[in-house]
Specification:
The protein is 0% helix and 40% strand. The chain has 144 residues and is an all-beta fold. It has one domain. The mean pLDDT is 90. Zinc ion binds next to loops.
């Protein structure tokens, strides 16, 4: 089965050799050090910095979260089988807050939970290609 990333510009590369999911890529301002995700061409905080590509950390902590109980407005596309409620929120990666899908069970989700980058199926293209988006899952001992 073929698959593709929902937006290549958000990621460093398709997949690394060791099977790790592709890392997220943001941008960092040379003037004030502000890190943004997704990438921007200009700094939101100052006017004299140059934005350079910045590969983001893969681990962070849940900063806030909510339950997406109903389907969001387009461009959201429901997965095969229809919309199911999911968690969404912000993950604190230390240098930047990233809004992301949280692949964390209801019983586990809490502010401060250590999480790690992963990819999850978002929906299927008309030709059957599985479209993957980034998400964060619980970081557990003994797992990478
Ligand atoms: Zn700046």
């Amino acid at each position: 089965m073929t698959s593709r990333l929902i937006d290549e510009s958000l990621f460093e590369s398709r997949e690394s050799a060791d099977g790790e999911p592709p890392r997220l890529v943001g941008a960092r301002c040379s003037g004030c050090g502000t890190v943004v995700f997704p990438r921007q061409d200009s700094c939101p905080r100052c006017s004299d910095g140059v934005m350079a590509v910045r590969v983001l950390p893969v681990s962070g902590r849940v900063w806030s979260w909510t339950l997406q109980a109903f389907p969001p407005k387009p461009p959201y596309r429901a997965p095969v089988g229809g919309h199911r409620p999911y968690h969404v929120g912000y993950v604190d990666l230390g240098e930047v807050l990233v809004e992301a899908l949280l692949a964390v069970p209801r019983a586990e989700i809490r502010i401060g939970l250590p999480v790690r980058l992963t990819t999850v199926p978002a929906y299927r293209d008309e030709d059957g290609t599985e479209v993957l988006t980034f998400a964060f899952r619980p970081e557990r001992d003994g797992e990478r």
